[in-house]
């Protein structure tokens, strides 16, 4: 069966991926992470995360896929010693110097998408350099991927959901030009996602129109829409890709939980042989759920054609509002005691997140204050029945429609 690989930026996200049945999780560590601004995990925490993953029969891959200079390589060797001791399942890597050093360890090496792999001959070369799996370039079509897979001497992995980069395989220098920040070392400030005005040399503003409906496009002219391949899971599985990768190491735990859960269900449905029968209704449900979390509008990337020109701003349908914290959990009756610092009503939807809990979404069907049923509370200690398991000090958020915020 194809492997489902989920992203994580912190312990909460790791738990969210595990609890929603990802087969493996990938994280970044300080100094060698392409999400340096928001998704660093201290190497000292990797040991516990490995144990958590292995206890749940999951794999942990560690990203060390930045471009580095000589003065960073000595430290990298020391970090590798620790990662080898912690028994991580693979390194995701792209720099040739780092590959040379990493080959001295026993850790399997997976080639990052940053390497921009587009042909079989490159895979043959990288196999000789110790690579056992490669993440193929996002710029390939499904036809290209199938051709490569048939002849590939190593496993292949492709992105199936999440952000797309305007630069080829993420090799971008806009942040360097504008902000003196190195995107290839994880410091991308995403100037491509901003709104831009396009003017001619005569200082006339040029208006872009959408060829699909002749509407005026927004001014995010450098920002691709997000990839979403959930309705094409049959094509992807039949292509014999070894692993499906979900983008999102900068995203919170509820994003990881939602996206992982949808793709897990889709993969399992196809493998069960019931895709034709059940997918029409389930696809509507999955697309609605995927649209509820952060996204810039969806497209299929380069799998079938050139992507649509531009994205939108965040099109998520809800936001999280911080409303409280779990102070106790009574496991026998599945009731959480929650200290609220905001208002909550019956039929509201809450999200509970914690390092071990991951991210759980619950609809509030009943509440009690001092043993008395209530329909609405504000800034009180309240008891709420929970379907899952939560823990003391977990954070509680209310799911609020964007239009209501």
Automatic annotation (TrEMBL):
GO terms for molecular function: peptidase activity. It comes from the Archaea. Keywords: Hydrolase, Protease. Pfam families: Peptidase_U32. One of its GO terms (biological process) is proteolysis. InterPro entries: Peptidase_U32 (IPR001539), RNA/ubiquinone_mod_enzymes (IPR051454). Belongs to the peptidase U32 family. This is Peptidase U32.
